[in-house]
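Chain and conformation:
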Amino acid sequence: MNIGIERLNIYGCSMALSQRRLAEARDLDPQKVVDDFLIDTRSINPLWEDTVTMGANAAKPIMEDIDPDSIGMLIVGTEGSVDFGKPISTNIIGALGLSRNIRNYETKHACYSGIAALDTAVNWLAAGLSGGRKALVISSDFSREHLNTKEEFVMGGVAAAVLLSETPKILDFEIHRKGTWSDDIYDTFRPSALAEVGNNEVSLYSYMDALEGSWEDYVKRAGDEVDFDKDHQWLSYHTPFPGMAFQAHRTLCNVNAPRKKAEVKEDFANRVMPALRFSKRLGSTYGSSNMVGTAALLSGDSDVKEGDRVGLYAYGSGAIGEFWSAKVIGGARELMKSMGIETQLDARRDVSIEEYEKIELTRKDSIEVPEYTPDRSFPSGLWDSNYEGKGLLTLEKVENYVRTYAWS
């Protein structure tokens, strides 16, 4: 049985903040900031977008010619839900007009939430419980306010939507080639809807421990002798920021066969950088990392061939690491290029430091309030240029905590 991704799309928000401009505003060396984090711009949402709208806007393009009754499961992974009881999957069912006869829920495990959702849906299909139906999996997250801290340079936001089925057209999952590692640790976490905190050094070590542990488990469970240098033509690592992918790749290179840094850099450029094209424009990609990497790889100009194996590493603070793999299906590149993701990212509006700071502070004040109506006049002209008549889901208002959404 083949189980994998039939369609894939990402939504990279409607605004972008230059990393160089932010570095200059904070009296830091712009080139060093860009080189250290490998981020050119980071995504930002206006006040009428949240994880619900992002998820629906990622999913809408892949659902336009799909019969709603053919979707039997919807799972949404997020650490930025808008409610502690009602899952945002229910909001998205309504927005997309999905069938009432659908299983739906929300998953949470920091940046692993999207892969937790995807893996559950894959297992549902593999168990033969779908009755021929497909699964829609969405990952949606963006950062909280971190003004004037070093953390603000590794923030971002994106949503990814994948349609999973027994007739994949993009990636075919190797469901028995998977390694997992878990621990109980406080590295980065969100103790409330307002706070996003943690220890960067602890998080770095936890990420690497989970990477090594899940890779060792992957090797043990793959069922044959695994050669890191030959088995995976491409690699997509979890990217709290793209620069982290280099540290991850260096770790696995040296675990398998210690080598010079120059050799690691060359291999990184060949096998990893093609999957970072979009992350460099988005900033942190949270639970969407592996899917963003897959979309970047397959919609780019790299020589990706049918049957190439993609190694994927997912990580979630708290913590869990998972290394898994999939094979590229013929025609995947053409299908991904047709999604026009690059064009969507190009259409984002550049924001000034003043606009960015006002958005972050205003959003912070609007979280968990019972009554709220987003100001569509700020930033000036954004609604008219990027939303009016564009068919994007937006937040209209909050009344007595009830959130009302509408397509623009």
